[in-house]
């Protein structure tokens, strides 16, 4: 001890269990007598449901229950939208389809049986009569007059329309020296965690309490919503998110199955579980990213951007569930990004289509907006004949402008950048990659017939959203320190980070601290783990609670030692009079005295525990610069990433090893989006990418070594000075790689405006240039 | 005591065409069980033997999370039926650490090099690594990436996994 743990590169306390195969993911939990649920899913993208007959399924031996929407009463509650806007149309989803299905995979009926095999056998016996309707799968087509209509409440298929405006953009464009514009499309892709979703539930016969285990990122929110839909008081529902095998935003959602499993368990008074298979996962997981950007920049003669005008169409899929327009809102308010642009006008149209509903995935709108902005930056640099790094440098927000108020507010909060030196980050990254030497390297390669390119992405990310997070810290009378947090992590090393924070505060070994999270039974209020919030929100709330515990311990020690509290210090888990280690009390002794019946000063409450909630109304912004170097095989269109450099600034870093792991993992997902990942539907709305054979994830041969440099601009918005950073890799990765591919081939006379840049796409671009190399 | 639901009992007309008795040795322990012939090896290991460290990630043989060793060869346990393992010797993630409860050098290397995040793919990657390093010493990073190319990790971006395998190669006396 004595060494500060915050900032230390230490190995994770989470790992030994996971390495031994002792993880407890939802499907690993042993529920004696558990029944298995299976869901009958719509094979049609759009159809009226004329009738559903579960009767034949009920006849199969081993089937315990089968039901459809008709069995759930005439007026069931829908999954609610958490942040509706004024223009939001009511297009909700119910636990089971009522009169229509609107995407392939939508649940129509369920079977509960003694085994999953039997449950799936029984699905085949359910009789459903559909009247197939025309489907619409393209978001631009969906908002054209005459398109098939998904919801009567949104006859133009517009789920919501968002407008963000600062300054006088029309005037900026009138006065512009030059205008550069293009349409930039990002494809539909999403988190695809390796553990699929899963839910198990059981009701306690004595207390009536329903316990739900879910592979989910926000247990408290899930509890509130499921309790509401089932008509139960919150106190009668406990949600536990055990080990969760990846989420990336896709499990910060309330899905129909999150309602159906507890409902089935309640109907039957037996434990029920449903583990999503990979096919269901592709059909029904929240999708993300699919967004079209008509973007234009107005430049003055000095190549300063004086105006930004954008129309975005977000493909929100078939229904608006919990986070509905959040992704669109965050995309709209982040599109100007790290640049100082005085006049901005953005309109975002949320278009409904016959596809699985969309919701934020790692980066939440920022990967999309960064792609459009950073791609257009490179296009502008080429059109205006200016170096792309110089063009960025000229327009970056300067450190002396911090805090920088963009004048915009997303659905969540005002967009105010709290701290940072963007130009320094850019210069550092350019230096790491030897940007000045690249032009010559590229000329030489081209002379050899090779296509190499370098791509830059400068971005910021919303890093720790509110509104609050909760934590308790307790030293029990045996001296053991337990932390309860409202967090619900999925591999981010949160237990280690929180233990590091508490170790510094209480001067105890971090490995001795037990960190518990993902359990609504442990702490009254919580929000969860998404939007890069753990370090900022959980970290600060845990720090607040630990500080309170330390203060109380010292006060009690002063009482016991008959000393002045100001004369005491805390060293190695002992309170002692400064410089007099012979008169010391261990935390164990202090905690024992704090127990009811112990020796406390008058007026001091018993127990050595504090519950604290950190409420914030302004989130920090971390930022980064990513630079990728690629080589494109002109004969196959295959892209190989030869070098990858990241400069990241997330303020104070609690554990650099964990932070770098987050960056590398994020970059892998970003380059997956740039080069390979895509959720494809045919014109009738049939998914064409519903297995790992069709949806390609980055493998060990696709992801390069990632070189990371850190800058540290502490956030003034929390006492730790931390900023979240888990999403940045996915934001920078997509655009840096896409820009690098563009840089490798655009001199041939083509323009890269969409992703993914699959080999076939790149090959066709090269062919379209009509310039076959030697 | 938990009430065991015998899945085979509810399969319509259970007989020798729908269930079989098999004997397997897993992590040194011998098990004799009656299983449904349509049950995959990974479901058998997880449900019947309650060894839940082997994970089910895709059930179509791509992600590698369910990898176990069958007669010393890595196998996708989602693509093999339990009945096909009759008479075979298996090793799962639970069998990697020694009797003394110490982490195996491969596990220790993953711990020290942050070779895992959510931990879901980890059991399959550990067994793939275990098999690879038994056959290979001083592998290059390219050879390691090739060896791991059948295991998907969605969290780490692989570089810390590669470092973990390199460290395991140095530390594991074999």
TrEMBL record, chain A:
Matching InterPro entries: Ald_Oxase/Xan_DH_a/b, Ald_Oxase/Xan_DH_a/b_sf, Ald_Oxase/xanthine_DH-like, AldOxase/xan_DH_MoCoBD1, AldOxase/xan_DH_MoCoBD2, AldOxase/xan_DH_Mopterin-bd_sf
Species, as recorded: Pseudonocardia bannensis
Keywords, ordered alphabetically: Molybdenum, Oxidoreductase
Keyword Lyase recorded: no
Keyword Oxidoreductase: yes
A molecular function GO annotation: oxidoreductase activity
Cofactor list: Mo-molybdopterin cytosine dinucleotide
Pfam families referenced in this protein's UniProt entry, alphabetically: Ald_Xan_dh_C, MoCoBD_1, MoCoBD_2
Boundaries of every Aldehyde oxidase/xanthine dehydrogenase a/b hammerhead domain copy: 20-134
Superkingdom classification of source: Bacteria
Protein name, entry field: Xanthine dehydrogenase family protein
PANTHER family: ALDEHYDE OXIDASE 1-RELATED (PTHR11908:SF132), XANTHINE DEHYDROGENASE (PTHR11908)
From TrEMBL, chain B:
Recorded GO MF terms: 2 iron, 2 sulfur cluster binding; metal ion binding; oxidoreductase activity
Family annotation (CDD domains): fer2
Keywords, alphabetical: 2Fe-2S, Iron, Iron-sulfur, Metal-binding, Oxidoreductase
Tree of life domain: Bacteria
InterPro entries: 2Fe-2S-bd (IPR002888), 2Fe-2S-bd_dom_sf (IPR036884), 2Fe-2S_ferredoxin-like_sf (IPR036010), 2Fe-2S_ferredoxin-type (IPR001041), 2Fe2S_fd_BS (IPR006058), Beta-grasp_dom_sf (IPR012675), Diverse_Oxidoreductases (IPR051452)
Pathways involved: Alkaloid degradation; nicotine degradation
All copies of domain 2Fe-2S ferredoxin-type, residue ranges: 20-96
Name by which UniProt lists this protein: (2Fe-2S)-binding protein
């Amino acid at each position: 001890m004595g060494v500060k743990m915050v900032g230390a590169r230490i190995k994770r306390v989470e790992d030994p269990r996971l390495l031994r195969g002792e993880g407890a993911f939802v499907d690993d939990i042993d529920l004696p007598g558990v029944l298995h649920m299976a869901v009958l899913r719509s094979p049609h993208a759009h159809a009226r449901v004329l009738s559903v007959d579960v009767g034949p399924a009920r006849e199969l031996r081993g089937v315990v229950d089968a039901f459809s929407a008709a069995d759930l009463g005439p007026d069931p509650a829908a999954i609610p939208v958490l942040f509706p806007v004024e223009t939001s149309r009511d297009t909700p989803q119910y636990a089971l389809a009522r009169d229509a299905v609107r995407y392939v995979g939508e649940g129509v009926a369920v079977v509960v049986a003694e085994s999953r095999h039997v449950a799936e056998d029984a699905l085949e016996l359910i009789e459903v009569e559909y009247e197939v309707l025309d489907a619409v799968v393209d978001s631009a087509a969906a908002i054209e007059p005459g398109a098939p209509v998904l919801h009567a409440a949104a006859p133009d298929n517009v789920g919501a329309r968002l407008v963000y405006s600062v300054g006088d953009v029309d005037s900026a464009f009138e006065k512009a020296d030059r205008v550069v514009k293009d349409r930039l499309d990002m494809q539909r892709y999403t988190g695809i965690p390796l553990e699929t979703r899963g839910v198990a539930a059981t009701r306690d016969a004595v207390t009536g309490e329903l316990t739900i285990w879910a592979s989910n990122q926000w247990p408290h929110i899930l509890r509130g919503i499921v309790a509401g839909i089932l008509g139960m008081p919150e106190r009668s529902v406990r949600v536990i998110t055990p080990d969760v095998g990846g989420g990336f935003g896709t499990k910060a959602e309330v899905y129909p199955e999150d309602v159906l499993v507890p409902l089935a368990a309640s109907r039957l008074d037996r434990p029920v579980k449903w583990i999503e298979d990979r096919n269901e996962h592709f059909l029904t997981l929240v999708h993300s990213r699919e967004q079209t950007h008509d973007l234009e920049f107005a430049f003055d003669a000095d190549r300063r951007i004086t105006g930004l005008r954008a129309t975005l169409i977000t493909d929100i899929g078939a229904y608006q569930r919990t986070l509905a327009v959040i992704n669109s809102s965050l995309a709209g308010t982040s599109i100007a990004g790290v640049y100082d642009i005085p006049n901005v006008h953005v309109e975002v149209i949320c278009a409904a289509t016959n596809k699985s509903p969309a919701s934020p995935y790692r980066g939440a709108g920022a990967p999309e907006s960064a792609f459009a902005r950073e791609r257009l930056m490179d296009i502008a640099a080429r059109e205006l004949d200016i170096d792309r790094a110089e063009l960025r440098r000229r327009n970056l927000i300067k450190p002396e402008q911090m805090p920088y108020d963009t004048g915009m507010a997303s659905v969540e909060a005002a967009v105010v950048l709290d701290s940072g030196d963007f130009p320094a980050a850019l210069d550092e990254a350019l230096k790491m990659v030897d940007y000045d030497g690249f032009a010559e390297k590229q000329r030489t390669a081209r002379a050899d017939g090779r296509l190499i390119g370098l791509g830059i992405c400068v971005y910021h990310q919303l890093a720790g959203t509110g509104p609050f997070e909760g934590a308790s810290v307790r030293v029990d009378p045996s001296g053991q320190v337990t932390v309860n947090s409202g967090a619900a992590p999925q591999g981010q090393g949160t237990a280690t980070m929180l233990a590091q924070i508490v170790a510094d505060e209480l001067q105890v070994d971090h490995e001795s601290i037990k960190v518990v999270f993902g359990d609504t039974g442990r702490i009254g209020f919580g929000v969860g783990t998404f939007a890069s919030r753990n370090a900022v929100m959980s970290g600060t709330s845990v720090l607040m609670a630990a500080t309170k515990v330390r203060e109380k311990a010292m006060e009690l020690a002063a009482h016991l030692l008959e000393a002045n509290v100001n004369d005491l210090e805390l060293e190695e888990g002992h309170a002692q009079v400064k410089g007099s280690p012979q008169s010391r009390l261990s935390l164990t002794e202090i905690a024992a005295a704090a127990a009811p019946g112990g020796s406390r000063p008058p007026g001091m409450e018993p127990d050595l525990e504090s519950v604290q909630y950190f409420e914030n109304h302004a989130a920090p912004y971390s930022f980064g610069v990513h630079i990728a170097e690629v080589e494109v095989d002109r004969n196959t269109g295959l892209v190989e990433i030869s070098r990858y450099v990241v400069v990241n600034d997330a303020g104070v870093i609690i554990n650099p090893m964990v932070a770098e792991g987050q960056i590398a993992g994020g970059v892998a997902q970003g380059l997956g989006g740039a080069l390979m990942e895509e959720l494809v539907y045919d014109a009738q709305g049939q998914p064409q990418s519903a297995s790992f054979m069709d949806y390609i994830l980055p493998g060990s041969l696709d992801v390069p070594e990632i070189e990371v440099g850190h800058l540290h601009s502490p956030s003034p918005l929390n006492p730790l000075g931390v900023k979240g950073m888990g999403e940045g890799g996915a934001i920078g990765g997509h655009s840096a790689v896409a820009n690098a591919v563009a840089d490798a081939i655009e001199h041939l006379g083509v323009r890269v405006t969409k992703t993914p840049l699959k080999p076939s796409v790149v090959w066709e671009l090269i062919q379209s240039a009509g310039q076959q190399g030697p | 005591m938990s009430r065991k639901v015998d899945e085979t009992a509810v399969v319509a007309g259970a007989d020798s065409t729908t269930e079989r008795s098999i004997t397997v040795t897993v992590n040194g322990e011998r098990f004799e069980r009656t299983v449904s012939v349509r049950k995959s090896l990974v479901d058998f290991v997880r449900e019947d033997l309650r060894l839940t460290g082997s994970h089910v990630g895709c059930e179509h043989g791509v992600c590698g999370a369910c990898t176990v060793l069958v007669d010393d060869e890595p196998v996708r346990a989602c693509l093999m039926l339990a009945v096909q393992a009759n008479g075979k010797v298996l090793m799962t993630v639970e069998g990697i650490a020694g009797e003394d409860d110490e982490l195996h050098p491969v596990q220790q290397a993953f711990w020290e090099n942050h070779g895992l995040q959510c931990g879901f793919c980890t059991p399959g990657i550990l067994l793939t690594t275990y098999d690879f390093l038994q056959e290979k010493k001083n592998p290059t990073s390219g050879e390691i990436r090739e060896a791991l190319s059948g295991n998907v990790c969605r969290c780490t971006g692989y570089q810390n996994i590669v470092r973990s395998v390199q460290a395991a190669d140095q530390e594991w006396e074999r």
